[in-house]
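Morning run. Coffee first, then this:
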Amino acid sequence: MASGDQPVRKVTIVGGGTAGWMTAAVLSQWLSQVEVTLVESEEIGTIGVGEATIPHIRNYLALAGIDALKMISETKATFKLGIQFVDWGAPGESYIHGFGKIGRDMLWLHPHQLWLAARERAPGSVKPFDHYSIAGAAALRNRFAFPDKRNPNSPIADLEYAYHFDASLFARFLRAESEARGVTRVEGRIVETLQDSETGFVTGVRLQDGRELDGDLFVDCSGMRALLIGDAVGVGYEHWNKWLICDRALAVPCGSVSPLTPYVRCTTRSAGWQWRIPLQHRIGNGYVYSSNFVSDDEAAATLLSSLDAAPLADPRPVRFAPGVRGKAWEKNVVAIGLSSGFLEPLESTSIHLIQTGIHKLLALFPATGFSQPDINEYNRQARFEFEDVRDFIIAHYNVTRRSGEPFWDYVRTMDVPDTLSERYELFRSSGRFFKHGAAELFAEESWVQVLLGQGFEATADPVAQFVPTEEIVGFLDDMAEIIADVAESLPDHGDFISRLPSSTSKAQDAVATSTLMHNLAEVHR
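And here it is:
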C-alpha cells in the first residue's frame, strides 16, 4: 500500500457513473503499467442527469481513445451548438450563447465592440448579437454540419460543437471500453475505509460482504457522499449558497418532438430555471430551484406542465449544495466529480470539471511517489477552475432586469465575488474583456454573449470612435448576412444525424481526428 515515497502501481476508483468511468477510460488508455480497479454498487446508483457538454468534450474523447461516431450511436447523442436562454434578461427576451468565434474582427476591434459602437451611434442599426455567431445562427435554424476547414475564410470553418447524450448510456459505453482495456470492475457496497494509522493514507476499502480492496492511489468518484475525501481523510466543504441559492432539482424525460434542436434551452421559472436537452430517443428536462422559494410539489407541477410531450417517468429529485471541497487531492485520495464540488448545470460544466480533474491527474500522476508540490498545484488549479465557472454562473442570475419575484429580486441585488465585480467594472466602462488566466474556461465570446444577451449596459470601446459609423454598420450588416446565408445552407440537424455511420472504419481509425471530421462533412453534400 502506498506511502508518500512509494510509486503508484495500483489505482482504485471508488464509484462508477460518469466520473468513475471517464476516469477509468483515460487511465487505462495511457497508464499501461498501472492496474486500475473500479468498485461500484448497483444498489446506490448515480445521479446521471448531466446530458449536455461543451466543446472540450471532444478533447476528452480523443484523449481517451474513444470513437466519436460509436459514442454518438450508443449514447443516442445529438449535437450541441450552444444554449438558448429564455426570459433571463427580462420576460419575453431570449438569446443564444453560441460556441466558438463571433464573426470577425475589424483591425483590432472585436465584433462586440463594433456592435456596442453602432448601437450607441446609430440606434436601430444592429441585429440581436447572436446573429453574428455562426453557432447561434445555425442553432436558431436547427442546422448542423461538421466544421469545414477547406475555406478558412468561411464561418463554417470555425463552427464549434459539443454533444447532448444520455449520461447513463455514456457511463455504460465507457465501462465497456474500459473493461476491454483491462479495468477490473468490482460490484459491492463500501462499508469501511481502511487507513494507515501513522500517515492517514487510505490503504483499502472493505465491502459489505467482507472483501477488501487495496490500492496505492484512490480516486473518489462517490459523488456527493464523498466517502474518501470527506468522510475518511476529513477534507471540508466550502458552501457557496450565498450566491448560488438553488439547492434542488427535479429531472424527468419526455417523448421526442420535431424539430431536433441542436442546443439546450434554459428557461427561467419563479424560483430557478428549467432545462430542455434533446436526444435522439427522448428529451431530458429538469427544474433547478431554491427550496426556500418554492415547494417540491409546486416545482414538480411547473415542470410537468411545461413538457413538449408526455413524461416517460416520474420526476426524480436531486438535492445538492453548491460549493467546492477544500482540497481536491489530500494524501493519496483524489476527488473527481461531485465529490470535489458541485456547480449547477446552467452552462453544462459538470462533465467538463470531471474532464479537467482527470487531465490534471494524468499530468501530475505520482508514478514515482507522492509529491506535495504536485498535490498543491493540482489543488490550486482545481480551485481556480471551480471559482472561474462559479463567477460565470453567478453572472447569469445577477445580470437581470426581472423584478417583483423574491428569488430574482435577491439574485439581482446580491453582492457578488470581487473577481466578478472587477469584470463588470471593466466591461461597463469600455466594453473590454480580458481573461484572468490561461486556464480560464470561458472565453471572451462566452462572457460577451451572456452579458449583452441579458442587457448588461456597457460603453463602447473608446478606440472605436476612430472608425466612421457607416463603416461599422456596413461591416456588421455584411457579417450578419454572410453568417445567415451559410447557416441556411447547412443540413437539418436531425437529417444530419440520421445519415451518420455508426462507427469509424478501421481505415479511418488511423486518420487524425481533424481529417476524419473533414471527411464526414461530406455526408450532407
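The first strand starts at residue 10 and ends at 14. Good start to the day.
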